Amino acid sequence: MRFPVVLFDFDGTVLDSGEIILASMRHATKTVLGREIEDEVLMAAVGGSGLAEQMRLLDATRVDELVDVYRAHNEPLHTSLACCAGMEDALERLKEEGRKLGLVTAKRRATVALAFETVPIEHLFDVVVGSDDTERHKPHPDPLLHALDLLDADADDAVYVGDSPFDIRAAKAAGMHAVAVTWGGIHPRERLEAEGPDAVVASAEELLAAL
After folding, report:
1. Are 144 and 160 in contact (CB under 8 A)?
2. Which residues are CB-neighbours of 64 under 8 A, at least 6 positions away?
3. What secondary structure letter does DSSP report for 161?
4. Residue 74's Cα: distance from chain center in Å?
5. How wide is the angle at C-alpha 144 spanned by C-alphas 141 and 150, nearest 5°?
6. Which DSSP string do the residues of 3-24 spell out, in sequence order?
7. Please, which residues have CB within 8 angstroms of residue 12's CB and are 6 or more apart in sequence?
8. Would residue 120 be called left, alpha or beta, if left means φ above 0 and alpha means ψ between -120 and 50 degrees?
9. pLDDT digit string (tens) for 73-111?
10. What is the largest CA-CA distance in the chain?
11. What is the CA radius of gyration of the chain?
């Protein structure tokens, strides 16, 4: 097989969570800052260096408040989550083929566990790396390299699948193949293509063909 190791981003790649992220970003900024911010600005850093850094870009003086209000709004919404179209079947097929699968996400482990309560797919992953597992986060390669270490795998044998420009940059920095997916609804296709991924796919079927 071409890639015996396949690592995935979570939000917008495996998990159809773009709408609840946006809703919580809107709620936090309106509640804490008392103003509305354009959706494109709110979502620009999603999928990168974690929630605190995303909030710092919006207002560096009120990061803790923004994070707390966001989480209070966002976590109850996890009960409405589902996998992105076709992704659960795709993961099962890759697993049946004997590939090692990993999840590398900007979410905290506690929030990942919350998502797994509603979307029970944890058993499909051989390793899960959250934002609290490495000091540096995407677009740095550290989380991806940590996952490879846990799997005792080489970058040459691995591909990272994600929906953000930060995913693509991290994969390239780690020496891995990078596949961008367009179904997340968080970042536009043009922004993904500008990062020069090895492949851009619009469906789970296209993803399987690219792997």
Report:
1. yes
2. none
3. E
4. 16
5. 135
6. -SEEEE--BTTTB--HHHHHHH
7. 18, 46, 47, 84, 163, 164, 181, 183, 184, 185, 186, 187
8. beta
9. 999 999 999 999 999 999 999 999 999 999 999 999 999
10. 53
11. 16
Report DSSP state, residue 170: H
The residue with tokens 């209070």 is: 72
Q: Collapsing DSSP states into helix, strand and coil, what is residue 63? A: helix
Give the pLDDT score at 1: 86
Closest CA to 201 of 168, 161, 173, 166: 161
* Rounded CA separation 25/182 (Å): 21
Strands (E), the chain: 5-8, 100-104, 127-129, 158-162, 177-181, 199-201
Q: Is 164:186 a contact under the CB 8 Å cutoff?
A: yes
Q: What angle do CA 5, 10, 14 make, to 5 degrees?
A: 80
Q: Is 9 a catalytic residue?
A: yes
Average pLDDT over residues 132-147: 95
One-letter amino acid for residue 9 of the chain: D
Give the span between the Cα atoms of 157 and 46, in whole angstroms: 27
The amino acid occupying position 123 is: H
The DSSP bridge partners found for residue 179 are 161, 199
